[in-house]
Amino acid sequence: MSEPFIHPQALCESRTIGAGTRVWAFAHVLPGAVIGADNNICDGVFIENDVVTGDRVTIKCGVQLWDGLRVEDDVFIGPNATFTNDMFPRSRVQRDALPPTTLRRGCSIGANATILPGVTVGPGAMVGAGTVITADVPANAVVVGNPARIVGYAGAEEVILSEGLPPGAPCRLIRADTHRDPRGRLSHWPLEAALPFTPRRLYVIDGAPDGWARGGGAYRRSHQFLIVTQGAVTVAMDDGRSRHVLRLSGPDAGLHVPPGVWTLQYGHSTDAALLVLASELYNPGERVAEYLQFSLDFA
Protein backbone atom coordinates (compact mmCIF):
# COMPACT_ATOMS: atom_id res chain seq x y z
CA MET A 1 0.00 0.00 0.00
CA SER A 2 1.26 3.49 -0.84
CA GLU A 3 2.37 6.21 1.53
CA PRO A 4 -0.37 8.56 2.78
CA PHE A 5 -1.24 11.50 0.53
CA ILE A 6 -1.51 14.90 2.22
CA HIS A 7 -2.87 17.69 0.01
CA PRO A 8 -0.64 20.81 -0.01
CA GLN A 9 -3.54 22.88 1.38
CA ALA A 10 -4.27 20.43 4.23
CA LEU A 11 -2.91 20.98 7.77
CA CYS A 12 -1.97 17.52 9.02
CA GLU A 13 -0.09 17.73 12.34
CA SER A 14 -0.42 14.04 13.22
CA ARG A 15 2.46 11.72 12.43
CA THR A 16 0.24 8.68 12.84
CA ILE A 17 -1.40 8.44 9.43
CA GLY A 18 -1.89 4.99 7.93
CA ALA A 19 -0.63 3.88 4.54
CA GLY A 20 -2.81 4.82 1.59
CA THR A 21 -4.81 7.42 3.53
CA ARG A 22 -5.72 10.61 1.65
CA VAL A 23 -6.12 13.92 3.47
CA TRP A 24 -7.62 16.52 1.15
CA ALA A 25 -7.55 20.32 0.99
CA PHE A 26 -8.45 22.42 4.05
CA ALA A 27 -8.66 19.40 6.35
CA HIS A 28 -7.02 19.87 9.76
CA VAL A 29 -5.76 16.85 11.73
CA LEU A 30 -4.38 17.62 15.22
CA PRO A 31 -1.13 16.01 16.47
CA GLY A 32 -2.67 13.40 18.79
CA ALA A 33 -5.08 11.90 16.26
CA VAL A 34 -4.47 8.30 15.15
CA ILE A 35 -5.66 7.67 11.59
CA GLY A 36 -5.79 4.18 10.09
CA ALA A 37 -4.86 2.94 6.64
CA ASP A 38 -6.68 3.78 3.40
CA ASN A 39 -8.90 6.47 4.93
CA ASN A 40 -10.41 9.17 2.75
CA ILE A 41 -10.58 12.46 4.67
CA CYS A 42 -12.36 14.98 2.48
CA ASP A 43 -12.17 18.78 2.23
CA GLY A 44 -12.95 20.80 5.34
CA VAL A 45 -12.73 17.97 7.90
CA PHE A 46 -11.43 18.73 11.41
CA ILE A 47 -10.07 15.91 13.62
CA GLU A 48 -9.21 16.59 17.26
CA ASN A 49 -6.41 14.97 19.32
CA ASP A 50 -8.20 12.11 21.10
CA VAL A 51 -9.67 10.53 17.98
CA VAL A 52 -8.84 7.10 16.57
CA THR A 53 -10.02 5.78 13.21
CA GLY A 54 -9.66 2.29 11.80
CA ASP A 55 -8.94 1.30 8.22
CA ARG A 56 -10.92 2.19 5.06
CA VAL A 57 -12.90 4.94 6.79
CA THR A 58 -14.58 7.62 4.66
CA ILE A 59 -15.15 11.06 6.19
CA LYS A 60 -17.00 13.40 3.86
CA CYS A 61 -16.78 17.20 3.71
CA GLY A 62 -17.71 19.42 6.64
CA VAL A 63 -17.34 16.85 9.44
CA GLN A 64 -15.68 17.51 12.82
CA LEU A 65 -14.48 14.57 14.91
CA TRP A 66 -14.09 15.59 18.55
CA ASP A 67 -12.10 14.11 21.45
CA GLY A 68 -13.37 10.74 22.62
CA LEU A 69 -14.55 9.46 19.24
CA ARG A 70 -13.56 5.95 18.18
CA VAL A 71 -14.25 4.95 14.57
CA GLU A 72 -13.77 1.30 13.59
CA ASP A 73 -12.94 -0.16 10.16
CA ASP A 74 -15.07 0.47 7.06
CA VAL A 75 -17.21 3.25 8.56
CA PHE A 76 -18.82 5.88 6.32
CA ILE A 77 -19.49 9.36 7.75
CA GLY A 78 -21.62 11.53 5.46
CA PRO A 79 -21.23 15.25 4.77
CA ASN A 80 -21.87 17.62 7.67
CA ALA A 81 -22.62 14.85 10.17
CA THR A 82 -22.31 16.37 13.65
CA PHE A 83 -20.67 14.74 16.66
CA THR A 84 -20.76 16.01 20.25
CA ASN A 85 -18.77 15.01 23.32
CA ASP A 86 -20.20 17.02 26.24
CA MET A 87 -23.75 16.61 27.52
CA PHE A 88 -23.59 19.90 29.46
CA PRO A 89 -21.32 22.22 27.46
CA ARG A 90 -20.23 25.51 29.02
CA SER A 91 -17.86 28.09 27.57
CA ARG A 92 -14.29 27.69 28.87
CA VAL A 93 -15.20 24.77 31.15
CA GLN A 94 -12.96 21.76 30.66
CA ARG A 95 -14.24 18.29 31.53
CA ASP A 96 -11.86 15.84 33.20
CA ALA A 97 -13.42 12.92 31.34
CA LEU A 98 -15.56 12.80 28.23
CA PRO A 99 -17.95 9.92 27.49
CA PRO A 100 -16.60 7.88 24.56
CA THR A 101 -18.61 7.70 21.35
CA THR A 102 -18.04 4.62 19.20
CA LEU A 103 -18.87 3.91 15.57
CA ARG A 104 -18.62 0.15 15.13
CA ARG A 105 -17.31 -1.64 12.07
CA GLY A 106 -19.14 -1.07 8.80
CA CYS A 107 -21.78 1.37 10.05
CA SER A 108 -22.86 4.41 8.01
CA ILE A 109 -23.77 7.87 9.27
CA GLY A 110 -25.98 9.85 6.90
CA ALA A 111 -25.57 13.51 5.93
CA ASN A 112 -26.46 16.03 8.66
CA ALA A 113 -27.06 13.35 11.29
CA THR A 114 -26.36 14.38 14.90
CA ILE A 115 -24.71 11.95 17.33
CA LEU A 116 -24.97 12.74 21.05
CA PRO A 117 -22.10 11.90 23.45
CA GLY A 118 -21.52 8.45 24.87
CA VAL A 119 -23.49 6.42 22.35
CA THR A 120 -22.45 3.43 20.29
CA VAL A 121 -23.63 2.93 16.72
CA GLY A 122 -23.59 -0.82 16.19
CA PRO A 123 -21.76 -2.70 13.42
CA GLY A 124 -23.45 -2.49 10.04
CA ALA A 125 -26.06 0.01 11.27
CA MET A 126 -27.42 2.66 8.90
CA VAL A 127 -28.20 6.12 10.32
CA GLY A 128 -30.44 8.08 7.96
CA ALA A 129 -29.78 11.66 6.86
CA GLY A 130 -30.75 14.21 9.49
CA THR A 131 -31.28 11.59 12.21
CA VAL A 132 -30.61 12.51 15.85
CA ILE A 133 -28.98 9.67 17.81
CA THR A 134 -29.68 9.88 21.55
CA ALA A 135 -29.14 6.20 22.49
CA ASP A 136 -27.17 3.19 21.31
CA VAL A 137 -28.10 1.84 17.88
CA PRO A 138 -28.25 -1.99 17.56
CA ALA A 139 -26.18 -3.87 15.00
CA ASN A 140 -27.53 -3.57 11.43
CA ALA A 141 -30.47 -1.42 12.52
CA VAL A 142 -31.73 1.23 10.08
CA VAL A 143 -32.72 4.33 12.06
CA VAL A 144 -34.31 7.66 11.09
CA GLY A 145 -35.93 10.63 12.78
CA ASN A 146 -35.56 12.82 15.86
CA PRO A 147 -35.07 11.05 18.16
CA ALA A 148 -33.96 8.05 16.12
CA ARG A 149 -36.37 5.16 15.69
CA ILE A 150 -35.71 1.79 14.11
CA VAL A 151 -37.44 1.30 10.77
CA GLY A 152 -35.54 -1.62 9.28
CA TYR A 153 -32.68 -4.12 9.34
CA ALA A 154 -29.89 -3.55 6.83
CA GLY A 155 -29.79 -5.99 3.92
CA ALA A 156 -32.90 -7.92 5.02
CA GLU A 157 -35.59 -9.30 2.74
CA GLU A 158 -39.06 -8.28 3.89
CA VAL A 159 -41.44 -11.23 4.24
CA ILE A 160 -45.24 -10.97 4.21
CA LEU A 161 -46.82 -12.98 7.00
CA SER A 162 -49.59 -14.39 4.82
CA GLU A 163 -47.04 -15.71 2.31
CA GLY A 164 -44.76 -17.31 4.89
CA LEU A 165 -40.98 -17.55 5.02
CA PRO A 166 -39.10 -18.53 1.86
CA PRO A 167 -36.93 -21.65 1.60
CA GLY A 168 -33.57 -21.04 3.23
CA ALA A 169 -34.89 -18.60 5.83
CA PRO A 170 -33.15 -19.16 9.19
CA CYS A 171 -36.41 -19.54 11.17
CA ARG A 172 -39.69 -21.42 10.78
CA LEU A 173 -43.20 -19.98 10.82
CA ILE A 174 -45.71 -22.18 12.64
CA ARG A 175 -49.38 -21.39 12.19
CA ALA A 176 -51.94 -21.96 14.91
CA ASP A 177 -55.17 -23.87 14.63
CA THR A 178 -57.47 -20.85 14.97
CA HIS A 179 -61.19 -20.91 15.72
CA ARG A 180 -63.42 -17.86 15.67
CA ASP A 181 -66.98 -17.63 16.97
CA PRO A 182 -69.16 -15.01 18.72
CA ARG A 183 -67.21 -15.61 21.93
CA GLY A 184 -63.91 -14.53 20.32
CA ARG A 185 -60.84 -16.20 18.85
CA LEU A 186 -59.07 -19.32 20.05
CA SER A 187 -55.56 -19.97 18.73
CA HIS A 188 -54.18 -23.42 19.51
CA TRP A 189 -50.74 -24.98 18.94
CA PRO A 190 -50.07 -28.66 19.56
CA LEU A 191 -46.60 -27.76 20.82
CA GLU A 192 -45.30 -31.28 21.27
CA ALA A 193 -45.91 -31.99 17.59
CA ALA A 194 -45.08 -28.53 16.24
CA LEU A 195 -41.88 -27.62 18.10
CA PRO A 196 -38.54 -29.47 18.06
CA PHE A 197 -38.02 -28.70 21.77
CA THR A 198 -39.76 -28.91 25.12
CA PRO A 199 -40.35 -25.44 26.61
CA ARG A 200 -38.66 -24.89 29.98
CA ARG A 201 -39.18 -21.16 30.31
CA LEU A 202 -41.86 -18.64 29.38
CA TYR A 203 -41.60 -14.86 29.42
CA VAL A 204 -43.64 -11.93 28.12
CA ILE A 205 -42.41 -8.59 26.75
CA ASP A 206 -44.76 -5.65 26.55
CA GLY A 207 -44.57 -1.89 26.83
CA ALA A 208 -41.60 -1.54 24.44
CA PRO A 209 -41.59 1.95 22.90
CA ASP A 210 -42.50 2.22 19.24
CA GLY A 211 -39.41 2.58 17.09
CA TRP A 212 -36.90 1.07 19.49
CA ALA A 213 -35.75 -2.49 19.99
CA ARG A 214 -35.66 -5.57 22.15
CA GLY A 215 -33.50 -8.59 21.57
CA GLY A 216 -30.38 -7.97 19.58
CA GLY A 217 -28.67 -11.28 20.23
CA ALA A 218 -28.41 -15.01 19.56
CA TYR A 219 -28.39 -18.09 21.76
CA ARG A 220 -25.89 -20.92 21.56
CA ARG A 221 -28.25 -23.69 22.72
CA SER A 222 -31.67 -22.24 23.39
CA HIS A 223 -34.58 -22.50 20.96
CA GLN A 224 -37.16 -19.70 21.11
CA PHE A 225 -40.80 -19.65 20.00
CA LEU A 226 -42.24 -16.14 19.57
CA ILE A 227 -45.98 -15.43 19.67
CA VAL A 228 -47.44 -11.93 19.46
CA THR A 229 -50.52 -12.35 21.61
CA GLN A 230 -51.80 -8.87 20.76
CA GLY A 231 -50.69 -5.96 18.61
CA ALA A 232 -47.77 -6.32 16.21
CA VAL A 233 -43.98 -6.63 16.36
CA THR A 234 -41.39 -6.78 13.57
CA VAL A 235 -38.75 -9.49 13.96
CA ALA A 236 -35.42 -9.44 12.12
CA MET A 237 -33.77 -12.85 11.61
CA ASP A 238 -30.11 -13.19 10.67
CA ASP A 239 -28.01 -16.37 10.53
CA GLY A 240 -24.98 -14.66 9.00
CA ARG A 241 -25.87 -15.86 5.50
CA SER A 242 -29.41 -14.56 4.95
CA ARG A 243 -31.48 -11.84 6.57
CA HIS A 244 -35.26 -11.58 6.71
CA VAL A 245 -37.76 -9.35 8.51
CA LEU A 246 -41.29 -10.44 9.34
CA ARG A 247 -44.08 -8.47 11.03
CA LEU A 248 -45.92 -10.76 13.41
CA SER A 249 -49.46 -9.61 14.09
CA GLY A 250 -51.79 -11.46 16.42
CA PRO A 251 -51.61 -15.01 17.75
CA ASP A 252 -52.48 -16.87 14.54
CA ALA A 253 -48.83 -17.66 13.80
CA GLY A 254 -45.64 -18.02 15.81
CA LEU A 255 -41.95 -17.95 14.89
CA HIS A 256 -39.52 -20.71 15.84
CA VAL A 257 -35.98 -19.32 16.24
CA PRO A 258 -33.33 -22.06 16.48
CA PRO A 259 -29.95 -21.59 18.20
CA GLY A 260 -27.38 -19.58 16.28
CA VAL A 261 -29.84 -17.08 14.77
CA TRP A 262 -29.52 -13.39 15.61
CA THR A 263 -32.87 -11.68 16.19
CA LEU A 264 -33.97 -8.11 16.78
CA GLN A 265 -37.52 -7.06 17.61
CA TYR A 266 -38.66 -3.53 16.80
CA GLY A 267 -41.63 -1.52 15.54
CA HIS A 268 -43.82 -2.54 18.49
CA SER A 269 -47.39 -1.30 18.27
CA THR A 270 -48.56 0.52 21.40
CA ASP A 271 -50.53 -2.53 22.57
CA ALA A 272 -47.98 -5.16 21.57
CA ALA A 273 -47.34 -8.14 23.83
CA LEU A 274 -44.77 -10.76 22.85
CA LEU A 275 -44.84 -14.17 24.50
CA VAL A 276 -41.69 -16.30 24.24
CA LEU A 277 -41.25 -20.00 24.99
CA ALA A 278 -37.63 -21.06 25.48
CA SER A 279 -36.01 -24.50 25.56
CA GLU A 280 -33.49 -23.53 28.27
CA LEU A 281 -33.57 -21.81 31.63
CA TYR A 282 -32.12 -18.30 31.60
CA ASN A 283 -28.35 -18.33 31.37
CA PRO A 284 -26.69 -15.05 30.34
CA GLY A 285 -23.49 -16.90 29.49
CA GLU A 286 -25.06 -18.68 26.52
CA ARG A 287 -26.40 -15.50 24.93
CA VAL A 288 -24.22 -13.80 22.30
CA ALA A 289 -24.94 -10.07 22.54
CA GLU A 290 -22.10 -8.78 20.36
CA TYR A 291 -22.77 -9.05 16.62
CA LEU A 292 -19.11 -9.30 15.57
CA GLN A 293 -18.67 -12.22 18.00
CA PHE A 294 -21.84 -13.78 16.53
CA SER A 295 -20.31 -13.45 13.05
CA LEU A 296 -17.20 -15.30 14.18
CA ASP A 297 -19.07 -18.06 16.01
CA PHE A 298 -21.98 -18.78 13.65
CA ALA A 299 -21.57 -17.16 10.23
TrEMBL record:
Q: Please give the SUPFAM superfamilies that the UniProt record associates with this protein.
A: RmlC-like cupins (SSF51182), Trimeric LpxA-like enzymes (SSF51161)
| Gene3D superfamilies attached to this UniProt entry | Hexapeptide repeat proteins (2.160.10.10), Jelly Rolls (2.60.120.10)
Has keyword Transferase? yes
Q: Name one GO molecular function term.
A: acyltransferase activity
Going by the UniProt record, its keywords in alphabetical order are: Acyltransferase, Repeat, Transferase
Q: What InterPro entries does its record include?
A: Hexapep, Hexapep_transf_CS, QdtA_cupin_dom, RmlC-like_jellyroll, RmlC_Cupin_sf, Trans_hexapeptide_repeat, Trimer_LpxA-like_sf
Coiled coil ranges: none
Q: Belongs to which family?
A: Belongs to the transferase hexapeptide repeat family.
Protein known as: Acetyltransferase-like isoleucine patch superfamily enzyme
Source organism of this protein record: Muricoccus pecuniae
